[in-house]
Amino acid sequence: MTTEWTYDGTLREMPTEAGVLRYHEAGEGTPLLLLHGSGPGVTGWRNFRGILPTFAERFRCLVLEFPGFGVSDDFGGHPMITAFGAVGTFVDALGLDSVDIIGNSMGGAVGINFATNQPAKVRRLVTIGGIGTNIFSPGPSEGIRLLQEFTEDPTRQRLVDWLHSMVYDPALVTEQLIEERWALATDPPTLESARRMYGKAAFAQMMAAMRASDAPLPWATMHKLAAPTLLTWGRDDRVSPLDMALIPMRTIPNAELHVFPNCGHWAMIEAKDAFESAVLAFLTR
């Protein structure tokens, strides 16, 4: 019997001192934490609703909505930094001894941070693009530049241009997807939060701070990651080009790399069946 997992039927709330975290819960078994990426109108539900039925058959799926993206409360500050803290708060509040993690793009970076700092809490980790650093390709990438342009001047056409940079097959950018993303992306508090992350001034300030700091860059600490890791990537990713995978693949001690052909940044959507097969094999091995 196939269970129909709906948005309202899976939505849960968790009060915290900083505000309310919202998440979706489906299935039973080993806890599987799904962490979404960034970008206009993104939510955990939109990133992962397509693969939720498959994974909920084997796992207790927990799709966390990060603060500042229009579903959970906005905790203030840089959304990625806030997300780092939110994962620990969330896992502890649910009393979970350990979790598996699937992290898309920014969610992968958050997952690596959590797994490195709380190694006993993460059994296995799966990332979808978004980590490492450009080696051969210029940065910021095409997708990041389009994201910055939308954040600075949010027009419908700029949203469409950004969405097309996320996928290999332009047919995936439907009117329904555009309308769904546009409604949340132009919500004033959500847009203000995005500007703290991707506004050109904020982005330049972040890069300058990283250059001035004595702390190692995130990609230079991946050798500390203990959890078995599956790096998944779209071969045709124009947000996180494939050469970004080389340093994580080499430096994460127990890492595997799976590359999906004819696939952009959203491997879990554009290569859904192959993604489910590869990730289930890794998590249940």
From TrEMBL:
The keyword Methyltransferase does not apply. One of its GO terms (cellular component) is membrane. Keywords: Acyltransferase, Hydrolase, Transferase. It holds the Pfam family Abhydrolase_1. InterPro entries: AB_hydrolase_1, AB_hydrolase_fold, AB_hydrolase_sf. GO terms for molecular function: acyltransferase activity; hydrolase activity. SUPFAM superfamilies: alpha/beta-Hydrolases. Residues 31-271 form the AB hydrolase-1 domain. This is Putative hydrolase or acyltransferase of alpha/beta superfamily.
